[in-house]
Design brief:
3 domains; Heat Shock Protein 90; seven-stranded mixed β-sheet; 10 helices; six-stranded antiparallel β-sheet
Length: 422
């Protein structure tokens, strides 16, 4: 059916209806607020069909009934009145998936009189059409009391066009509303997580400080087995402090409250400082650290302590995932207006499908119940966050398991100056 195929004596009326249909389509597809959308649909239906009122009934899947989503001047009163599928005009339209014209509603046994009594509205004539999404009926759009004459087939076709557009628009609005609700819930959970990390790391600092102080004192003052036990306590406390610092750094980066103090410095200076910090761990595993640093100072704008943490995390990662007596290479390469830093190892390697995942928070390639290497899985997340704060890039490359890994950090460079040697 197509209302355009029906004869129309008033060409101006037909052109006006065509224009309004186009306007309706544009408006329905740009209105995301469900209540505004419903009100616009019934207002449009009433105006297009020149009738006293219109209403939208949607299907409640849980109750198996129709309910008034909105109706002219009576939405709140009608909302509490369920409309049964059996024995009602709207229910018949819904179940049989076909339009109905009732030009003497009071005499129709399916007329649900309770609705009119509730809002003091008498229905004389009624046109109802199913609202469909593909082949699924989702509700019913009704036009009530034609102001002049009776409802016709042309009215049915016109209202069917509005109903088909309205069904899709309502579905889209609901999906967007559900998506927004899910997003809000995720934001709430994310805030709870950030608050928890912030509170936990803050509260752990005081007892950790006391523990470190006593452990250091006992190690210095004790001898023999007592000194060894104190050393184990101290090492465990230091590891716990590293975890607390990692959580704190990640949280600061995520909430965007990290304070950066940029200075103009040679990147070699930052890398050398990071290597000194990790040297003991490498020596403990008899690993060989090799360097290839330019003689000329390669200058970058950076927060030295924050940038140092990037290379400490990357080097620590290389040490942990490289076997004893393995090798780690550190290279700095000037390239155009950038400083490229590569940290390569001949360790366990990374599966190709994990190269991006390893930068996610708390992510470990090994299962957390069976993995051989400790840690929270925060080091690479923190490194990426800090590199981004320096307007840089970071990524990993690997030929796969057992073929080692290479981490590359690229930072904007101010340029190269004279020799680093005094």
């Amino acid at each position: 059916m197509d209302f355009l195929n029906h004869p129309c004596e008033d060409k101006d009326l037909l052109l006006g209806q065509l224009s309004r249909i186009v306007e309706v389509s544009l408006t329905l597809n740009s209105t995301l607020d469900p209540e505004q959308l419903l009100q616009y649909i019934i207002k449009t239906a009433s105006e297009l069909l020149d009738c006293e009122a219109a209403s939208i009934l949607l299907y409640d899947e849980k109750r198996g009934e129709l309910f008034f989503a909105t109706a002219a001047n009576a939405a709140k009163q009608l909302a509490a009145i369920p409309v049964p599928l059996e024995g009602s005009i709207a229910g018949t339209i819904f179940l049989e998936n076909r339009p109905l014209i009732i030009n003497n509603a009071q005499q129709d046994p399916r007329h649900y009189a309770q609705v009119g009594e509730q809002i003091n509205f008498q229905t004389r004539t009624l046109l109802g059409v199913p609202m469909r999404i593909r082949n699924r009926v989702t509700g019913v759009l009704e036009a009530l009391n034609k102001r002049s004459g009776e409802f016709t087939q042309a009215d049915t076709d016109l209202l069917s066009v509005v109903a088909s557009q309205a069904a899709i628009a309502i579905q889209n609005a609901r999906l967007i509303q559900a998506l927004q609700k899910a997003y809000d819930e995720l934001s709430r959970v994310d805030k709870l997580k950030s608050d928890f990390i912030s509170i936990a790391s803050h509260e752990l600092r005081t007892p950790l400080g006391v523990l470190l102080g006593y452990a250091t004192f006992l190690q210095e003052e004790s001898q023999g087995q007592a000194s060894e036990m104190a050393a184990k306590v101290l090492n465990s406390a230091l590891k716990l402090r590293e975890l607390v610092e990692a959580m704190t750094n990640l949280n600061l980066i995520q909430v965007g409250s990290t304070r950066m103090e940029f200075r103009t410095i040679p990147i070699q200076q930052v890398i050398s400082s990071a290597v000194k910090e990790i040297q003991i761990a490498a020596e403990a595993k008899n690993q060989k650290l090799s360097f290839n640093l330019p003689e000329k100072a390669l200058i970058v704008q950076a927060d030295p302590e924050k940038l140092k943490l990037v290379f400490v995390n990357l080097l620590n990662n290389a040490v942990r995932f490289t076997q004893p007596e393995g090798e780690i290479w550190v290279r700095v390469i000037p390239m155009h207006n950038e400083a490229w830093v590569e940290i390569q190892d001949n360790g366990v390697g990374i599966p190709p499908d994990e190269l991006e995942n390893i930068f996610k928070e708390f992510y470990q390639v090994e299962d957390h119940m069976t993995r051989r290497v400790g840690g929270l899985g925060l080091g690479l997340s923190i490194a990426r966050g800090i590199v981004k704060l320096h307007n840089g890039r970071i990524w990993a490359e690997s030929g796969g398991e057992g073929q080692g890994s290479t981490f590359k950090v690229v930072l904007p460079s101010v340029g190269a100056t004279g020799s680093l040697q005094p």
